[in-house]
C-alpha cells in the first residue's frame, strides 16, 4: 500500500486527515489496519447472513384460544378454532355448588339472548373445589340438560389448577390479572374471550353472569 492509499484508508476508517501522513507508515499500525479491515469484512458478512436469516423467518404467531383442542363430554376432539369470530364466555362449572342454580339460570339467559349475535358459552366441569362435580360426563350433561335445559356445550371434565391443569386453562390464566392472581378460586370463575381468541376479562366465581352483560355486548358490537 503506497502513502496516498494508506492515507485514504486511514481517513475512511479513522477519520484522520490526509495531512497527518508525513512519514512512511508504521508497520505495526499497518498490521492493525490490515486486521481491522479483515475484521470489518468478516463482521459485515456475518451480519448480512444474520439479517437474511431473520428476514426469511416468519414472524411468530401470537397464541390464542384457537391454538387449542379440547374434548367434548363424549370424548371427541373439538378444535377451538371452530369458534373463530365468536365472543366466548368460558366457565368452570359444578353441579352441586351453592352457586349452581343462579349461574346456570343466568348463563342460559345470556346464551338465549346473544347466541345469534355471536356469543358462545363453553362450560368445563371441574371437581377440584369441594368435590362438587363428582359425576361422570354423562351424568353431568344429563343434569344440565334436564334441570336447566341448557343448550350451550358441556365439555370433558378437567382440572383448572395444579400440575394437571388443562392447557387451555393454562393459557387463560397466563394473562396479567392483577389481584385475582393465577389460580382459579372456586367453581364458576369466568373468562371473556374476544373475537381474536384473546382473554380480555376475568371474573370472580361470585360474579353474576348477568352483571357482565355490558362487557359481552361491547365485544359483540351490540348497541345498548
TrEMBL record:
InterPro entries of this UniProt entry? Glutathione_peroxidase, GPX_AS, GPX_CS, Thioredoxin-like_sf, Thioredoxin_domain
Protein's GO biological process? response to oxidative stress
**Assigned keywords, A-Z:** Oxidoreductase, Peroxidase
Identify its protein family. Belongs to the glutathione peroxidase family.
- Enumerate the GO terms in the molecular function aspect: peroxidase activity
Official protein name in the record: Glutathione peroxidase
Transmembrane regions = none
Q: Which PANTHER family match?
A: GLUTATHIONE PEROXIDASE, GLUTATHIONE PEROXIDASE 8-RELATED
Q: Which residues form the Thioredoxin domain?
A: 59-221
What is the source species?
Castanea mollissima (Chinese chestnut)
